[in-house]
Amino acid sequence: xxxxxxxxxxxxxxxxxxxxxxxxxxxxxxxxxxxxEKLHKTIVALFGAAIMIVVKIVTQHEAFHVEEFGVDWNxxxxxxxxxxxxxxxxxxxxxxxxxxxSVKIGKGDPLRIMIIFAIITxxxxxxxxxxxxxLLMVPVTLLITDALEIxxxxxxxxxxxxxxIGGTATLIGDPPNILIASKAKLTFxxxxxxxxxxxxxxxxxxxxxxxxxxxxxxxTEERLKxxxxxxxxxxxxxxxxxxxxALLVLAIVMTGFVFHGTLHFxxxxxxxxxxxxxxxxxxxxxxxxxxxxxxxxxxxxFIGLFIIIGGITKVGLIQWLSIKVxxxxxxxxxxxxxxxxxxxxxxxxxxxxxxxxxxxxxxxxDMTKNLWPGETGVELLQNHDLMPVWWSLALGACxxxxxxxxxxxxxxxxxxxxxxxxxGISFMRFIAYGVPVMIITxxxxxxxxxxxxxxxxx
Amino acid sequence: MKxxxxxxxxxxxxxxxxxxxxxxxxxxxxxxxxxxxxxDMVKKAAGKKVSEIMSKKVITIxxxxxxxxxxxxxxxxxxxxxxxxxxxxxxxxxxxxxxxYHTIVESLLNES
Lengths: 458, 112
Fold this sequence. Notes:
The structure holds two protein chains of two kinds.
Chain A: H1 18-36, H2 41-54, H3 60-65, H4 73-89, H5 94-105, H6 110-127, H7 130-148, H8 153-166, H9 175-184, H10 188-214, H11 222-229, H12 240-259, H13 267-282, H14 287-292, H15 296-314, H16 317-329, H17 333-350, H18 353-371, H19 377-381, H20 387-399, H21 409-420, H22 427-455
Chain B: H1 12-19, H2 22-25, H3 37-45, H4 50-53, E1 61-62, H5 67-77, E2 81-85, E3 91-96, H6 97-111
Parallel strand pairs in B: 1-2
Antiparallel strand pairs in B: 2-3
């Protein structure tokens, strides 16, 4: 048992007032409408946020300028800057180059290509967001499977799975991690140090599964292999000068991420600088096109969400919930870690993991305030005993995305693209791969958390 | 769908769109197309129905529209033809770009 629990016993400290009821009402209605998909989630989030401000649950000042009750601009600018960097990188043809090159390294053999594509997807997902990664990988995959005259669906599903696993490894890999990092003031290196080892293990497991599952199933003819071997990866590079500049900036950005903690820069500063530098280096004639391609819908969804959650935090709903959780786990942080991981995984399989993690973040922070009342700031947020809870939240929320076709944005995008190409992925076909992979990866993560943080305590 | 109403329009471009895979249309991957890919894709698309490839959102023009309106529509939207409908939204004819061209030539000839 960690912490002293004798001095609080739940809800009696809180009075239920009009503010609490209003904020809770706005939150629940927004959430229900988002889940029902009757209205686009961004519209709902903005509307809910606007109401929170209009009824003065949060003031405009709090919504726009106070991180605790409003927009976390660190997250917003990290997302926008990364989107700009990706939009500037895309026309260079670099990603197609990598994909075609890897097909040739795989000598046109379908099983090898499937494994290499899974590795590339995981790697790119760790550095870019998952949706961008699959948007780059799916068209090449469809081209190659058409050329080899084999079924594209197993390739596409393994890429989705690899993308959700790979994205777990870094701070910028998946939106839940961006949210957690900003809340807990964790660095890029923290994520690599704590999550990369298990992600590598999970990828080895995924690749072994692919190997044993498809070893005998996917075959193609020699003449079709020659078809892909004749493709020249260099054809995708339209402007080598711009590409060289872009790769140099990308290297600087990645170095910046590695050292942002030591140099005392926020991750958003690194990305913001990278976006500006890449803009200056490539000097596109129409910057408007790059701005227009930013996923503004996602950005505004985050903005609305932050304000709604700010509202329910301010009225004390989150605090009340956090006490309930502590009551339930009797203050055992090991139990909390395990519950957080499995609950997050199951929840993320069915609901958007972004709002889920945004709420869990505030819940965890409130919980820690109850556990260690004397501590504040980074000391509190990164309390040694709390760290496994953050990692469990990240692992659960990211890996849970594999549990259903709607578990993560990347899943939805891939299924949409493959349907458009006339290769529909049915709900059941996705589940058949996704659920076992989700259960195996979360179970292994659980063992990892237990061994590393509770048994070995490193 | 009532009898006489317009279900959609199939142009040569729609047919090409039905044959060129979506992953090529949305990317620059045609660079990597193999010899004979088009014929391969034609075979794959052969079973498709008209309803799968036709343009469903067809801009129509009313039968009492002016020629200037028709010309403006064609120029603005880069159309080759405009289906003409009556006030019950039933198809009564087609206006082709060449019909307008004839009118233009005629009026020029009459002037001289």
